[in-house]
Amino acid sequence: MEKETFYCEYCGHKFPNVRLLTSGSCPRHPDGSNKGRHKLYEGSEKAKYTCKYCGKQFPSIQVMVGGTCPYHPKGSNKGPHAPAL
Predict the structure, then answer these.
(1) Is residue 42 classed exposed, middle or buried when 0-12, 13-18 and 19+ CB atoms within 10 A define those classes?
(2) How far from the centroid of its chain's Cα atoms is residue 53's Cα?
(3) CA angle, 50 as apex, 84 and 33 as ends, to 5°?
(4) What is the pLDDT at residue 85?
(5) Which residues, other chains included, contact 79 with Cβ-Cβ below 8 Å and sequence gap of 6+?
(6) What percent of the chain has pLDDT over 70?
């Protein structure tokens, strides 16, 4: 039986279950570092993840959210890339 992995949409960290994911504060939360909880990424696990704003592909969610997106809704480079489902 394969273990399921759950990812935070904001920071890309992985967790063994949803309870652990949603119980911790997230260093990349949109309201500020550790000002909110991790958010469950509801898409499937993939070999490459695509930013829903610009279409660029990344090897992981963690790498993706580490950079700013030129097509972010708040303005050019004013927010991180976000994974498409």
Answers:
(1) exposed
(2) 13
(3) 70
(4) 86
(5) 30, 68, 69, 72, 73
(6) 98
What is the spatial distance between Cα 33 and Cα 24, in angstroms, rounded to a whole number?
12
pTM for the structure as a whole: 0.84
Which residue's entry shows tokens 């949803």?
A: 18
Closest CA to 79 of 32, 21, 41: 32
Cβ-Cβ contacts under 8 Å for 72 (sequence gap 6 or more): 53, 78, 79, 80, 81
CB atoms closer than 10 angstroms to residue 79: 16
What is the per-residue pLDDT across 25-41, written as a single tens digit (0 to 9) for each?
999 999 999 999 999 99
Q: pLDDT digit string (tens) for 49-73?
A: 999 999 999 999 999 999 999 999 9
CB 26 within 8 A of CB 37: yes
